[in-house]
């Protein structure tokens, strides 16, 4: 009776691991373009949660190992253990691919650092965040040159005024919805503009000129800040991916930085548009959206054939469900 009960529990462990397979397989199907178009959106939603799948798989393997030691003499147990080992091996192989093969290579740091890095940052400050003083302190402490603040409402105006001495160049698109944004800069940016997508969601573009002391013939860096809709419907999924493809294709021939809250991890099918055009993330796979165990959906991408990263990191919790991220970027 005890063996039957244990075997039944072990079978449930087997089926739990089977449920992980679609999510673990999603990045592979996306990279190899093997999934039917009808399944692209649901598979994309499943594919973001690789950290969580890895944690569940770890506990499944630990329970399986303990169970095997206890019941290894029973034939029924051996059969169950073999099935579990097979599904665990498959799950683990897919997880390895998702963490070490499919993600685009992180932009490497160059040591020693060049003389004129630009420290840039991106932070989804959250629509309802009231910790503006803490955010101000963190920005000043980090000596950031250019920062994009997302989900910024008109209620931020007093805080932006206090930042004006440090950041005299402020490019604002304030909104009561989650798609307001402000770009703060110590330097005047060239041709700054907010562009609305066909759904009315803004993104920001400008050029970062050569810094003081650099040859004026140095090519400017094209800066783009984005915050597309989360892919909560097929149309939102398609529009996000179309924006990714458009920006990746437009920024291949010159130094470029694309940053913001992408509402997509590197395992997303849409993210492949950037990696195919040589864009590299500066922060790897560390989660930046903190609920539910975290997802790495905030990114600073650089055109790795034109730019280099000398340092990067993330900030502390500042009253938002996102963490701020920053990177030191320089011309090659």
Protein model, in words:
This protein has 332 residues and is of the alpha+beta class. Helices cover 38% and strands 22% of the residues. It is built from eight helices and twelve strands. It has helices spanning 2-32, 40-47, 50-71, 75-100, 132-142, 157-162, 234-250, 272-276; strands at 118-124, 146-150, 169-173, 181-185, 190-196, 202-208, 221-226, 256-261, 279-281, 298-303, 307-314, 325-331. Strand 1, helix 5 (132-142) and strand 2 form a beta-alpha-beta unit. The protein is elongated, with a radius of gyration of 23 Å.
Write a brief structural summary.
By secondary structure, the chain is α+β, with helices and mostly antiparallel strands. It has helices at residues 2-32, 40-47, 50-71, 75-100, 132-142, 157-162, 234-250, 272-276, and strands at residues 118-124, 146-150, 169-173, 181-185, 190-196, 202-208, 221-226, 256-261, 279-281, 298-303, 307-314, 325-331. The strands form two sheets. The chain has a six-stranded mixed sheet, with no helix packed on it.
């Amino acid at each position: 009776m005890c063996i039957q009960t244990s075997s039944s529990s072990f079978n449930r462990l087997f089926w739990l691991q089977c449920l992980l397979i679609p999510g673990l397989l999603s990045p592979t199907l996306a990279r190899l373009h093997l999934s039917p178009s009808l399944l692209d959106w649901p598979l994309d939603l499943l594919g973001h949660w690789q950290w969580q799948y890895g944690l569940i798989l770890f506990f499944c393997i630990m329970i399986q190992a303990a169970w095997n030691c206890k019941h290894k003499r029973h034939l029924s147990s051996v059969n169950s253990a073999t099935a579990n080992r097979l599904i665990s091996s498959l799950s683990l192989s897919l997880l390895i691919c998702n963490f070490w093969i499919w993600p685009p290579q992180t932009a490497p740091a160059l040591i020693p650092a060049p003389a004129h890095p630009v420290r840039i940052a991106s932070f989804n400050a959250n629509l309802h965040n009231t910790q503006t003083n803490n955010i101000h302190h963190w920005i000043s402490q980090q000596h950031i040159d250019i920062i994009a603040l997302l989900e910024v409402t008109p209620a931020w105006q007093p805080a932006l005024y206090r930042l004006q001495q440090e950041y005299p160049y402020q490019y604002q698109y304030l909104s009561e919805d989650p798609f307001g944004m402000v770009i703060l800069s110590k330097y005047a940016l060239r041709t700054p503009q907010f562009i609305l997508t066909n759904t009315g969601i803004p993104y920001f573009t400008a050029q970062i000129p050569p810094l003081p002391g650099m040859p004026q013939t140095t090519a400017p860096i094209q800066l783009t800040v984005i915050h597309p809709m989360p892919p909560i419907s097929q149309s939102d999924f398609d529009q996000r991916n179309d924006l990714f493809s458009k920006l990746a294709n437009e920024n291949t021939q010159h130094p470029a930085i694309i940053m913001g809250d992408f509402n997509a991890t590197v395992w997303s099918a849409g993210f492949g548009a950037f990696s195919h055009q040589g864009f590299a993330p500066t922060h790897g796979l560390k989660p930046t959206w903190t609920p539910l165990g975290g997802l790495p959906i905030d990114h600073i991408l650089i055109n790795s054939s034109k730019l280099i990263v000398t340092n990067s990191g993330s900030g502390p919790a500042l009253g938002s469900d996102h963490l701020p991220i920053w990177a030191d970027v320089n011309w090659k």
